[in-house]
Specification:
The protein is an alpha/beta fold. The protein has one domain: 3-Layer(aba) Sandwich (Rossmann fold). Strands 1-7-6-2-5-4-3 form a 7-stranded mixed β-sheet. A hairpin with an 8-residue loop joins strand 3 and strand 4. Helix 1 crosses helix 2. The longest helix is centred in the N-terminal third of the chain and has 14 residues. The relative contact order is 0.26.
């Protein structure tokens, strides 16, 4: 079972507020799957979540490294930020050792479809970012574990 909601994001401040809301609700084992075209705001939202978890300083885009990890005390819970844009086949996510990275951590996944997707997981909240007339739209679909804590 999943629930869906569309959130209007008028500007970067609204995107940061959504990121803060997600960070407050995030648990180890959760997946925040961020989809949308180039420049849709996936990395901006990921950075907002990571900052809200306590990280201070730069949050590099993991486009080239593919996986970036954050650990306490730098953040309030172990976190993996992955950008699967460069993967050509979902099996490559396995080759990266993604399951090992995810053990006991939450995952923010940009371009999740390139890694085979995560929507089938109960702990997945899928967010598709779309450009709107003004600002952006975030189409949020919550997996079963998110139904009581939908942002």
């Amino acid at each position: 079972m999943s629930a869906a909601r569309t959130i209007k994001l008028a500007d970067e401040r609204a995107t940061a507020a959504l990121g803060q809301s997600i960070a407050r609700l995030l648990r180890a084992g959760d997946v925040v799957a961020l989809s949308g075209g180039l420049g849709a705001g996936k990395t901006t939202l990921a950075r907002a979540i990571i900052a809200a978890l306590g990280h201070e300083g730069e949050v590099p885009s993991p486009t080239f490294a593919i996986v970036q990890t954050y650990d306490p005390p730098d953040v309030s819970l172990p976190l993996v930020h992955a950008d699967f844009y460069r993967l050509e086949d979902p099996s490559e996510a396995e080759e990266l050792g993604l399951d090992d990275y995810r053990d006991g951590a939450a995952l923010i996944a940009e371009w999740p479809e390139q890694a085979g997707g995560f929507a089938h997981e109960a702990g997945c909240i899928s967010i598709t970012l779309e450009t709107a007339e003004t600002g952006r739209l975030a189409v949020v679909e919550a997996g079963a574990d998110w139904l009581d804590r939908m942002p």
